[in-house]
Design a protein that fits this description.
It contains two helices and three strands. The chain is an alpha+beta fold. It has one domain: Alpha-Beta Plaits (2-Layer Sandwich). The chain has a three-stranded antiparallel sheet, with helices on one face. The longest helix has 22 residues.
Length: about 90
């Protein structure tokens, strides 16, 4: 019934992040906004029934094509910071 969720193709916009919770996408959008990188969220979560399974639960973060590299680098730096913090906690 549900296939792998795929971001929509939107002219001149690129999906740089997809998550199953909208909160993570909202936080990433806020971070990019602080870096003056424009972004928009596309949420496929079904608000009528609050479904959070399969294709109906994903949220996607899009940026204009000209900001793709900058946005991906910024989001990658967050992942690196989180991973280094987790490794520090295990010591």
């Amino acid at each position: 019934m549900f296939n792998d969720p795929k971001p929509n193709d939107i002219d001149n916009w690129v999906c740089v992040l997809e998550r199953s919770t909208k909160l993570e996408i909202e936080m990433a959008k806020s971070y990019l906004s602080n870096l003056n990188i424009p972004s928009n969220i596309l949420s496929k979560q079904d608000s009528s029934y609050s479904l959070s399974v399969g294709d109906m639960s994903y949220a996607y973060l899009y940026v204009p094509q000209e900001f793709e590299k900058q946005a991906r680098e910024a989001l990658a730096s967050i992942d690196q910071d989180e991973n280094s913090e987790e490794e520090g906690d295990n010591s």
